[in-house]
Design goal:
Number of domains: 1
Order of helices and strands: HHHHHHHHHHHHH
Number of helices: 13
Helix content: over 70%
Distance between the termini: 27 Å
Largest sheet: none
Number of strands: 0
Shape: globular
Structural class: mainly alpha
């Protein structure tokens, strides 16, 4: 456990070794604010809530998370430092979990930078802070699930650009799986059991339930289970690559 947190601390420090991380965080916070107050028509709606903020959040994550996850393993493989890492007294599980926790902490920091928007809404009105808190929890869990998927895909290639592109595609599919147009199309070509599985696996469906104010344990377990599954697969990929 101690080694896992050492790796996480090292990886998190690596994010801030260049100005890119600061630019990234500021850009994300600015984009979230712009989406909420201008694109989402916050002032014209005359309603003190963060519904528009959380409506746009999954799509901001679709750009943010693959960019964070693409370097987790692709860069290690490109530079050859993965071989050095694996020869150290570090288990594959500790390395995978440590890198993931660093990326998840970075996304948590990005979310934390948007809390002034929450404070602003409270200054302007009387929002339901319980719903907003639940929505932040949902955002953090969904970010973790997307990051675990991106990390898993990053382990498949040495090229960060390729990892970024396939992560966007995979994360996008997990987002829109429950969309009406996707389900309607699937019903024409796939058995009902597959359609139900795809619909129940949609990130937006589980995210939407929580952001509506229902902090359902099933939705939280879905995201946590997905994270665990992706990290397990990630570890298996690293083991295969290590033995190749």
């Amino acid at each position: 456990m101690r080694i896992m947190f050492i790796i996480a601390r090292r990886e998190l420090a690596a994010y801030f070794s260049t100005p890119l991380a600061y630019v990234f965080l500021v850009t994300y916070a600015a984009a979230a604010g712009a989406m909420t107050f201008y694109v989402g028509g916050f002032f014209s709606r005359r309603q003190a809530d963060l519904a528009t903020f959380f409506t746009f959040q999954p799509w901001l994550f679709l750009a943010l998370i693959p960019a964070i996850g693409m370097r987790l393993w692709a860069e290690e493989r490109r530079t050859g430092t993965i071989e050095i890492l694996m020869t150290m007294p570090v288990s594959t599980w500790e390395a995978v979990a440590g890198k993931f926790l660093a990326g998840w902490a970075f996304t948590g920091l990005a979310l934390l930078l948007t809390t002034p928007i929450w404070f602003t809404v409270n200054y302007l009105g009387s929002p339901d802070n319980g719903v907003i808190f639940a929505s932040y929890v949902a955002s953090f869990l969904m970010a973790g699930a997307l990051l675990a998927l991106a990390s898993c895909l990053s382990a498949l290639t040495r090229n960060q650009v390729i990892a970024f592109v396939i992560s966007i595609a995979a994360c996008g599919l997990m987002m829109v799986g429950g969309a009406d147009i996707v389900i309607a199309t699937l019903r024409k070509v796939a058995p009902g059991v597959i359609v139900d599985f795809v619909a129940s696996s949609s990130f937006l469906s589980h995210f939407g339930t929580i952001t509506n104010g229902v902090l359902d344990l099933r939705d939280m377990l879905f995201f946590l289970s997905f994270i665990g599954l992706c990290l397990f697969i990630n570890g298996q990929i690293i083991e295969i690559k290590k033995g190749a």
